[in-house]
Specification:
The structure is a single chain. The chain has a single domain, classed as Alpha-Beta Complex (Lambda Exonuclease, Chain A). The protein contains five helices and five strands, in the order ααβββαββαα. By secondary structure, the protein is α+β, with helices and mostly antiparallel strands.
């Protein structure tokens, strides 16, 4: 994760600016959502010449079975909801750039994925308020998990 954070190179954003017809690019935009009880920092937020807001994440990884990773889609959908709450504008799409394979992918942000994020955040809120220990993910997911060192599971 640290390498990915340091790896962000301004040249990565150049083709994105051209593709989106950006008039303004904001970097490391911090957002807070009272509705979702969530905060985060978007790598880039593009404002197009048509005043569309597009969140962009740079990932130092590869596609999963030829598609955008599910957690990356959910992360961008969460950012989209926070943008909507903070800027009072609907987000219709987001972009993820996979640096290892140099692939830029546009993700449609529709009501289905927004509702999925809302549902997940409600479930997390219940876990926290009830002080429940969540079930362990499939062990194969633990290998690359950034929270692995904090996990209470004994299976490592």
């Amino acid at each position: 994760m640290l390498y990915g954070r340091e790896f962000h190179d301004e040249s990565i954003i150049t083709p994105i600016i051209a593709k989106t017809k950006a008039s303004k690019v904001l970097r490391n935009v911090e957002l807070i959502s009272n509705k979702l009880k969530l905060k985060g920092k978007i790598d880039y937020l593009v404002i197009t010449k048509f005043n569309e807001l597009i969140p962009i994440e740079i990932k130092w990884s590869e596609l999963e079975h030829g598609a955008v990773k599910r957690d990356h889609k959910l992360q961008l959908a969460a950012y989209s909801l926070m943008i909507e709450e903070n800027f009072n504008k609907i987000v219709k799409r987001a972009i993820v750039y996979y640096t290892r394979i140099k692939k830029l992918i546009t993700i449609p942000i529709d009501e289905n994925i927004k509702n999925e994020v809302k549902h997940i955040m409600n479930e997390i809120s219940k876990i926290v308020s009830n002080e429940e220990i969540p079930k362990m993910a499939k062990p194969k997911h633990c290998i690359n998990c950034g929270f692995r060192v904090y996990c209470r599971q004994e299976s490592f």
